[in-house]
Specification:
Largest sheet: 8 strands, mixed
CATH superfamily: 2,3-Dihydroxybiphenyl 1,2-Dioxygenase, domain 1
Radius of gyration: 27 Å
Distance between the termini: 82 Å
Structural class: alpha+beta
Number of helices: 4
Strand content: 25-35%
CATH topology: 2,3-Dihydroxybiphenyl 1,2-Dioxygenase, domain 1
CATH class: Alpha Beta
Helix content: 25-40%
Number of strands: 8
Shape: elongated
Number of domains: 1
CATH architecture: Roll
Length: 177
């Protein structure tokens, strides 16, 4: 049996019909884009909280950054849980955190041993660290910490593994209290 091709009618829409059809497609497309992008409308990271720099010797680094930034360190703190000494500088609205390892085998000492002194991490301020941790896990990021912990400068902190962020260690920070 041979099939004969079906005849189709030529559909000729007038300008009004074309405009209505275009509007319907456009409205559908806009709704779909809004639905897909709605999760990106929320602000998750409020600002860059600080840039962390790994140093071998805090005295030498403090002197260097005082000259470089033209200001003295406003705060130095030991964070026993991380095995580090920190020193903070403000340069305008920007904060720099120097970190020196004080315990054998801590993350800063290991970083310096492998890569030398330099930028260690970028920290972002968040309003709700636990919800951000959950959101990032759902998005497929690997967290170094399962729970937020107390860090320097009156912050709760959590780190996102650089293997899941293109090689950059990210720190989440939430002000305590």
């Amino acid at each position: 049996m041979s099939k004969t091709p079906r005849k189709t009618k030529n559909f000729k829409a007038d300008e009004t019909e074309k405009a209505e059809l275009t509007n319907k497609v456009s409205e559908h497309f806009e709704v779909e884009v809004q639905r897909r992008n709605s999760k990106f409308l929320e602000v998750h990271f409020q600002k860059i909280e600080h840039i962390g720099i790994a140093v071998r010797d805090m005295g030498t680094a403090n002197s260097l950054y005082e000259k470089l930034l033209g200001v003295a360190s406003y705060k130095q703190e030991t964070v026993e849980s991380e095995g580090v000494i920190t020193s903070f500088f403000m340069a305008g609205n920007n904060k720099v955190e120097l970190l020196q390892g004080i315990k054998e085998g801590n993350a800063i000492s290991a970083f310096i041993e492998k890569k030398g002194e330099g930028v260690h991490h970028i920290a972002f301020e968040v309003a709700d660290i636990k919800s951000e941790m959950n959101r990032l896990k759902q998005e497929g990021f690997v967290l170094i910490n399962d729970e937020p912990k107390k860090g320097a400068d009156n912050k709760l902190i959590c780190f996102v593994h650089p293997k899941s962020t293109g090689g950059v260690l990210i720190e989440l920070c939430q002000e305590i209290g």
